[in-house]
Design a protein that fits this description.
5 helices; about 0% strand; mainly alpha; about 140 residues
Length: about 140
């Protein structure tokens, strides 16, 4: 419940409580707060038990945490892959298609990747292109840009 409160915050709360209630009344205040927390927990546990008994035996494994939308989606869709959602999700992986398009644009063989630039380490764009002389620029296509 209080897992995100650090030691410094706890010390600050204790000092604040001592200043507000005083050292003589602080034990009684802590006792009253603890009794209130216990009563709230008992009330919520009895309410949960009443709801479960009213729902019937069909909902014996019902958990109230499942009413949280994140937990519901995780339990219903991600844990049970009856619909093949992992296959659909993997079908939207465009890395291979994009790498083949990139290789085609750069004039590399698809599937060989960066190794097709030659053993000299010279990038493909600096090497001689087919049909171009060494000083000639490639043709400019204004519709392609």
């Amino acid at each position: 419940m209080f897992s995100d409160i650090g030691a410094l915050e706890v010390v600050a709360l204790v000092i604040l409580a001592v200043l507000v209630f005083g050292p003589d009344k602080l034990p009684k205040v802590i006792k009253d707060v603890m009794q209130f927390v216990r009563k709230v927990r008992e009330f919520s546990d009895s309410a949960k038990a009443d709801i479960r008994s009213e729902l019937g035996p069909e909902f014996k494994d019902f958990e109230f945490e499942d009413l949280n939308p994140k937990n519901f989606v995780r339990k219903q869709l991600l844990d049970n892959d009856e619909l093949g959602l992992k296959e659909i999700r993997n079908g939207f992986d465009f890395k291979e298609e994009m790498s083949s398009v990139t290789d085609a644009v750069h004039g590399r063989d698809s599937g060989t990747g960066a190794a097709s630039s030659g053993s000299s380490g010279t990038p493909d764009r600096l090497r001689k292109r087919d049909g171009l002389t060494p000083g000639e620029a490639p043709p400019f296509d204004s519709d392609a840009t």
